[in-house]
Specification:
288 residues, alpha/beta, two-stranded antiparallel ribbon, 10 helices, 10 strands, 15% strand, binds 2-acetamido-2-deoxy-beta-D-glucopyranose
């Protein structure tokens, strides 16, 4: 399993890249399984366009604009197949994901269910030029108030990845670590999750040498915003701790969302999503 390379090697790589082409410079399809960080309107459709309240949210995203995976597909000019659902867990059989809204209780497919459904509904075609993404943000821990073992959650994610491998022979699967929310300090649940994820992905990768297994250090990238004044200045972000609106009640919205890192208590502003997409893109093309 490869963790993405550091910024310094990336600059070297970008210089070298102008001379050669990489197998990672094009994808025809990007297929994403995940939660609110990647949902581009699936829950919005499920709730008859009533949740999340839009505006101020952007067309059913938990943000003020597109989410990161949409920017990434635009960069690649790839077809986006978005199977992510707001509030999704790793697996509904482990922790059931649901949304209580407007007197209804909507069940949302967990990542395992998203993948099972995809396997049953999509033809077994050639997925050589397809980027598979499993982008998980930790909802099992939120539902259970940290009452679930990271090994159980990560094992479930890896089992789903095995299903992808058995059914589609993907060339590349991209995972991410879980970052901290605005006001949290070092969070042992997430630290443990990320540690277990790294270990089990190493074994998974060794079992499947034909698959390029990548782990995006989302936690480190978001921490960089807390630490680097230069980065904040470059993106005109002055606020990395306060939320611009609330996902419980979106009636108040701050005046300058473009200066905020977090749109609501747990989700990023679209500017940060675009930054993440560019960062993922730059690291991918550097793999050569
Ligand atoms: C969906 O929302 C529209 C507009 O608010 C409403 O007219 C329609 O009855 C709703 N459909 C369902 C199935 O609730
Ligand atoms: C909503 O459904 C989920 C399962 O999908 C269940 O765990 C939860 O208790 C339900 N909530 C209510 C209020 O019925
Ligand atoms: C760790 O994160 C979880 C999920 O967001 C949260 O419930 C918990 O309060 C956090 N713990 C600390 C110490 O910040
Ligand atoms: C959080 O704690 C873990 C273990 O206690 C440590 O390895 C890690 O470096 C810490 N991370 C940060 C950002 O402080
Ligand atoms: C940064 O944000 C402030 C407040 O929204 C705005 O007035 C200013 O023009 C922005 N600066 C740049 C360089 O975009
Ligand atoms: C930010 O989140 C807190 C906690 O949920 C909430 O009480 C507050 O109203 C939110 N701020 C804004 C501007 O919506
Ligand atoms: C973080 O803490 C600040 C200051 O206490 C508070 O105003 C803000 O709403 C908090 N942010 C979140 C997302 O809860």
């Amino acid at each position: 399993m490869r963790s993405f390379i550091t910024i310094n090697t990336m600059i070297m790589c970008l210089i070298q890249l102008s001379l050669e082409t990489s197998m990672w410079t094009t994808f025809d399809n990007i297929i994403v399984f995940g939660d609110s960080y990647s949902d581009n309107g699936n829950v919005y459709a499920l709730t008859n366009e009533s949740y999340p309240q839009s505006p101020p949210n952007y067309k059913g995203r938990f943000s003020n604009g597109k989410v990161w995976i949409e920017y990434l597909s635009m960069k690649y000019q790839a077809n986006l197949i978005d199977k992510a659902f707001i509030y999704a867990t790793s697996d509904n059989d482990l922790v059931p994901g649901h949304i209580q809204w407007d007197n209804s209780n909507y069940s949302v497919p967990g990542m395992k269910q998203q993948i099972d459904f995809f396997i049953n509904s999509y033809p077994n075609q050639n997925y050589d030029k397809t980027l598979f993404v499993m982008w998980y943000f930790g909802n099992d821990y939120r539902y259970t108030n940290n009452g679930i073992n990271p090994s159980a959650v990560v094992s479930s994610l890896i089992n789903s990845a095995s299903q992808l491998v058995n059914n589609f022979k993907p060339k590349i699967i991209l995972f991410s670590t879980i970052p901290l929310l605005p006001n949290s300090t070092n969070n042992s649940t997430f630290t443990n999750h990320n540690k277990v994820l790294k270990n089990l992905l190493d074994s998974f990768s060794a079992e499947h040498p034909d698959v390029e297994v990548l782990l995006y250090p989302f936690d480190e990238v978001l921490l960089k915003f807390r630490e680097s004044a230069a980065l904040k200045e470059k993106l005109n972000i002055t606020n990395v701790f306060n939320n611009c609106t609330s996902n419980k009640d979106a009636s108040n919205v701050c005046e300058n969302p473009e200066n905020y890192m977090f749109w609501d208590e747990g989700h990023l502003t679209t500017k940060i999503y675009e930054y993440i997409a560019n960062d993922v893109y730059n690291r991918l093309i550097c793999l050569i």
